[in-house]
Amino acid sequence: MAAESDKVFAGSIPKFYDTLMVPLIFEAYAADMAELAAASSPGAVLETAAGSGVVTRALAPKLGAGARYVVTDLNQPMLDYAASRQGPDSRIEWRQADALHLPFENASFDVVCCQFGAMFFPDRSAGYAEARRVLKPGGRFVFNVWDRIEENAFADEVTAAVATVFPHDPPRFLARTPHGYHDVALIRGDLSRAGFTDIEIQTREKLSRSPSAREVAMAYCQGTPLRNEIEARDASLLQRATDRAAEAIASRHGEGPVAGKIQAHVIVAAG
What we know:
By secondary structure, the chain is an alpha/beta fold. The chain is 43% helix and 22% strand. Strands 3-2-1-4-5-7-6 form a seven-stranded mixed β-sheet, with helices on both faces. Strand 4, helix 4 (124-134) and strand 5 (135-146) form a beta-alpha-beta unit. Helix 8 runs antiparallel to helix 10 (238-253). The two termini are 28 Å apart.
């Protein structure tokens, strides 16, 4: 179960997240998500847990001139940041909303998409049932979740490195939440309970690239809620934790540009 602090993306986190985390691990999957969401030429699309808008930026150019695109997130600071990156687009409506309690009528969207958000849902079947409720008959729910942390090199290495700074109480945010919902049978079961009958799951491996180990460490330690966990233990150790993470990645992947495996499950549910 995600801790309350796991959902806090505020302060300087949105900017660090967007400038560091997004190119590192989210952009490649956002391109896939945009392809899948746009494939049926939908007239109305809902995006939940939109974060800093990486899917929005990839998907908006693929939608028709008359399409309606509602972009939501639980965190208003994230949504404000996403809107600031997008530029004027009369098709897009930005709206603060909880994916578990969507403020929309039944059967109002052709596609609901959610990039790396389901892991944060306190009740996944409830979140999926809401997605299904607002989908029109024949509509599709397109989302993705990270595979286990061991299949994601940088997240695994950062977690191990930060644990050396707090050996008696290691921050486990990355393993617990972003990488905590990777069991394909469990995902299928949660979707079935929500009423979906046609469920396709693909596991996709990609490469995460960064100009330096330092940027990877900054991204994870200061651009995600892992920062909240470190600061809750001892705010004065944020820099040391970041340094340890940078050293660990450099020792494994070298000085200069680095690349590490990332892996996620991509799900399309209908019916």
